[in-house]
Design brief:
By secondary structure, the chain is α/β, with parallel strands linked by helices. It contains 7 helices and 6 strands; from the N terminus they run H-H-E-H-E-H-E-H-E-H-E-E-H. It is globular, with a radius of gyration of 19 Å. About 25% of the residues are buried. About 20% of the residues have low confidence.
Length: about 190
């Protein structure tokens, strides 16, 4: 009896993992578009050599980056997780550029956290950032162990990008999908 009951279970698991599991990632938005992600992070020596020729901060571990999400001062921080390969991310970048220009004299800091793959930092990310003149607002986060740190950014974040976090002290507001307009970005700041 036991052998008869387990056979359908094995068949169902096979169908799920071989046929449906890969397809389910296509439903998650930009988070699924990671076919050329390297299996491991760059060795420290390689990361350091590349970081020396990148004109903005590069964090190869989330632990190094994390303090940027917990600043305790009078500044409002707008932190956007994005990547050059994510079309919705790139489409909403002008909203952040406009916010940077309009709030230059206010205690508001925009931080654009690139989740591009470390192998693409020099080839894709650096030229993209230079073309848009964003280097003073960009950091690269090369920690590919997403499961270990995404929940630390927000328990509500499933890892899909774009993801925007606005915080001031202990107050936090989040947007876990593409911003529809500049006004929506401004509304997030108003919700603190």
């Amino acid at each position: 009896m036991y052998k008869k009951d387990i056979k359908p279970l094995i068949v169902n698991l096979f169908v799920f993992f071989v046929l449906l599991f890969p397809f389910s990632f296509s439903l998650l938005g930009c988070a699924a578009k990671t076919p050329d992600a390297p299996a491991t992070t760059l060795p420290a020596s390689t990361a350091t050599a590349e970081a020396d020729s990148i004109p903005f901060p590069v964090f190869m571990s989330y632990g190094e980056f994390e303090p940027l999400l917990h600043q305790a001062n009078d500044t409002t921080y707008v932190v956007n997780f994005w990547a050059t390969w994510c079309k919705p991310c790139v489409e909403e970048l002008p909203f952040f550029e406009k916010l940077i220009a309009e709030t230059a004299s206010q205690p508001i800091k925009v931080l654009l956290v690139s989740m591009d793959f470390p192998k693409d930092f020099l080839r894709k990310l650096v030229p993209f950032v230079a073309e848009r003149k964003l280097q003073h607002h960009v950091v690269a986060l090369g920690d590919l162990d997403y499961d270990a740190w995404i929940g630390k950014v927000s328990e509500k974040w499933d890892g899909a990008i774009p993801f925007t976090l606005v915080y001031k002290g202990q107050k936090r507001v989040e947007k876990s999908s593409e911003l529809a307009s500049y006004e929506e970005l401004k509304a997030l700041l108003g919700n603190l």
